[in-house]
């Protein structure tokens, strides 16, 4: 069983949902001029988190070829593969996001917030974040391409969500996560098992944004994405959506869990 977002008629919301549900992506860049493959496409695997607007966030090293290439040409593309639950992969959704990679200033409030979101999703990366050659980067998304199965293909000229009215939710995110993980672990488990069809045990909430929230089972390195029915621009609206989803999960048939 999957979150109802899979059937959402808004293809742009679906594209962001698919991307946000992936904790890794294929990063494609252009090989720099001082390499034998200059000008050719270069692809690598990266772990990805997201800002509240859906912009991808990376933690990468200057020793890596993809970072050296980005420093020479910041244009890039990220492929997010949401096809894992499909027996025939090409019937499942995937999203390519084109944009410009920008190194995050870790001294700014916005930079600190993005770093915290990344490390909440990947706590094991905290040791690398302290190394001198590692930095957080944000991909400012431009165009995006959704393939949601045969015949469901669409380009978007803009990918990011307008979060100009969502400051309250961003400011309250840490408190919401602490509260949910400390006091509502049972709700988190049934989100994972009843709404996402995942196995039980060890799920925590690692992020919440206007369109939904992220769960992770750290021991297995598995992430899940659950979508809200309505945009939540502040903590109270998010609470309403969380309650709505937990009620739906509790009403689900017992055999919906994997």
What does this molecule look like?
The chain is an alpha+beta fold. It has two domains: 7-161, Electron Transport, Fmn-binding Protein, Chain A (Pnp Oxidase, Chain A, Roll); 166-258, Alpha-Beta Barrel (Split barrel-like). The protein has helices spanning 11-20, 65-72, 109-121, 126-129, 167-183, 185-195, 235-251, and strands spanning 24-30, 41-47, 49-50, 56-61, 75-81, 94-103, 134-147, 153-156, 203-209, 212-217, 222-227. The strands form two sheets. Strands 1, 2, 3, 4, 5, 6, 7 and 8 form an eight-stranded antiparallel sheet that branches. A hairpin with a 4-residue loop joins strand 10 and strand 11. Helix 6 crosses helix 7 (235-251). The protein is globular and about 60 Å long. The termini are close together. 37% of the residues are buried.
Distance between the termini: 8 Å
Q: Looking at the chains present, what oligomeric state does this protein adopt? A: single chain
Number of helical segments with 4 or more residues: 7
Average pLDDT score: 92
CATH architecture of the largest domain: Roll
Topology (SSEs and partners):
Blueprint (H helix, E strand, L loop, with lengths): L10 H10 L3 E7 L10 E7 L1 E2 L5 E6 L3 H8 L2 E7 L12 E10 L5 H13 L4 H4 L4 E14 L5 E4 L10 H17 L1 H11 L7 E7 L2 E6 L4 E6 L7 H17 L7
Antiparallel strand pairs: 1-2, 1-5, 3-4, 4-7, 5-6, 6-7, 7-8, 9-10, 10-11
């Amino acid at each position: 069983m999957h979150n109802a977002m899979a059937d959402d008629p808004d293809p742009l919301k679906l594209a962001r949902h698919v991307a946000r549900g992936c904790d890794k992506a294929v990063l494609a860049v252009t090989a720099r001029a001082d390499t034998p493959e200059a000008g050719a496409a270069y692809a690598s695997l990266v772990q990805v988190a997201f800002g509240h607007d859906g912009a991808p966030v990376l933690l990468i090293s200057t020793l890596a070829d993809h970072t050296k290439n980005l420093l020479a040409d910041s244009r890039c593309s990220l492929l997010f593969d949401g096809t894992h639950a499909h027996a025939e992969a090409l019937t499942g959704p995937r999203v390519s996001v084109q944009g410009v990679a920008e190194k995050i200033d870790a001294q700014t409030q916005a930079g600190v917030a993005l770093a915290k979101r990344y490390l909440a999703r990947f706590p094991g990366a905290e040791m690398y974040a302290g190394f001198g050659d590692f930095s957080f980067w944000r991909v400012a998304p431009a165009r995006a391409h959704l393939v949601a199965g045969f015949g469901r293909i669409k380009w978007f000229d803009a990918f990011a969500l307008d979060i100009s009215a969502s400051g309250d939710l961003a400011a309250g995110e840490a408190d919401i996560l602490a509260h949910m993980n400390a006091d509502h672990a049972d709700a988190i488990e049934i989100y994972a098992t009843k709404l996402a069809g995942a196995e039980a045990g060890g799920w925590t909430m690692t992020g919440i944004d206007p369109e939904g929230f992220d769960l992770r089972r750290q021991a297995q390195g598995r992430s899940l994405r659950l979508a809200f029915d309505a945009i939540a621009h502040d903590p109270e609206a998010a609470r309403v959506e969380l309650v709505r989803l937990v009620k739906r999960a509790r009403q689900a048939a017992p055999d919906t869990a994997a």
